[in-house]
Amino acid sequence: MKVLRGRYVIEKNFTNFYHQNIYCEFDEFSMDNELNRFFLFAIRVFKRYSSYSNLSRCEMVLDEVQYEHVDFNRIKLYHRTI
Q1: pTM surpassing 0.70?
Q2: Which of 23, 35, 49, 78 could form a disulfide with 12 if both were Cys (CB 3.0 to 4.6 A apart)?
Q3: pLDDT 10s digit of each residue in the chain, 82 long?
């Protein structure tokens, strides 16, 4: 059974119509992305005002994430109505 994983590439599939292959694109996973930068920023802000010890552990999980100040005007919130 063939399964589609990733994003279907229409152009390549139309040009190779008779082939049995399905062309897909994949996004490369990276720990250093906008959402994880936001989480790291939030953890560091909360650490200033909290004695909750697990915040340090959460910060260690995100050690590959580059710390930067978050501009809340740049954050894109996507939502879908059901």
Answers
A1: no
A2: 23
A3: 456 566 767 677 666 666 666 667 766 778 888 888 889 999 999 999 988 889 999 899 999 998 877 776 766 666 566 6
